[in-house]
Amino acid sequence: KAGVTQTPRYLIKTRGQQVTLSCSPISGHRSVSWYQQTPGQGLQFLFEYFSETQRNKGNFPGRFSGRQFSNSRSEMNVSTLELGDSALYLCASSMTGVNSPLHFGNGTRLTVT
Amino acid sequence: GENVEQHPSTLSVQEGDSAVIKCTYSDSASNYFPWYKQELGKGPQLIIDIRSNVGEKKDQRIAVTLNKTAKHFSLHITETQPEDSAVYFCAASRGTSYDKVIFGPGTSLSVIP
Predict the structure, then answer these.
(1) Beta bridge partners of residue A112, listed in sequence order
(2) Is the N-terminal amide bond of A25 cis, ω within 30° of 0?
(3) How close is the nearest chain A Cα to the Cα of B102, in Å?
(4) Which of A4, A19, A57, B89 is the Cys-Cys partner for A105 at CB 3.0 to 4.6 Å?
(5) CB contact under 8 A, B97 and A50
(6) Hey, how many other C-beta atoms are within 10 angstroms of the C-beta on A11?
(7) d(CA B104, CA B35)
């Protein structure tokens, strides 16, 4: 069974730009959740989607948004990038949600200059 | 808000010794407690989890204990091997489909051959 795939692996963007990250979950998994990982703040929950609906979100500004498609693939968008958005962005898929084992991808490393 | 504390932040042990990582959570409604291992350049991987109706769970060299009264849970690794070297994260969630998951700050474990 293929694992969770995140693209691209690396991104370099300039302040003020926007970026879209992609996540393909494990086949059959309907939940996709997103996390920001930084050395200072650790792993922070961004939001979770299940069957194309956002079920919960963390404490991030509205510049961070996401969506999920009918095939469970998900995208995350960050608009008006700030230097502090530089981080590893991880997505995870699961059968039922964050209350069940999460299967993480290897992340997208975003650098904002 | 909800919080998960994790100690120690770094841990070095000799190969063959045991390692113990402890976490404390603040939300008394939490009832799902997974542990993840993250190797360099990879996403976190679930190694063991426990739900609040169980006090202890073992899987070969790994065990997790839970004390709901004290809001503590711990990871125990016996007979450590160099390949156990990684960053370990504990996490807590309420176990409902509409919940968010809160991660501890992580413990960097080094196993010295």
Answers:
(1) A13
(2) no
(3) 7
(4) A4
(5) yes
(6) 16
(7) 10
Cβ contact, residue pair B93, A33, below 8 Å? no
- Chain B partners within 8 Å of A104 (Cβ): 36, 43-45
Cβ distance of B41 and A58 shorter than 8 Å: no
Rg (CA), chain B: 14
For residue A37, the distance in angstroms to the closest alpha carbon of chain B comes to 10
Q: Give A3-57 pLDDT, tens digit per residue.
A: 999 999 999 999 999 999 999 999 999 999 999 999 878 899 999 999 999 999 9
Look at residue B84 and give its three-state secondary structure. helix
Rounded-to-integer distance, Cα B100 and Cα A90, Å: 15
Q: Which of A77, A57, A60, A96 is nearest to A13 (CA)?
A: A77
Cis status of the peptide bond prior to A8, with omega within 30 of 0: yes
- How sure is the predictor about B1, in pLDDT bands with cuts at 50, 70 and 90? low
Cβ-defined contact of B98 to A58 (cutoff 8 Å): no
Using an 8 Å CB-CB cutoff, list chain A residues near B34.
Answer: 101-102
CA distance B34 to B23: 11
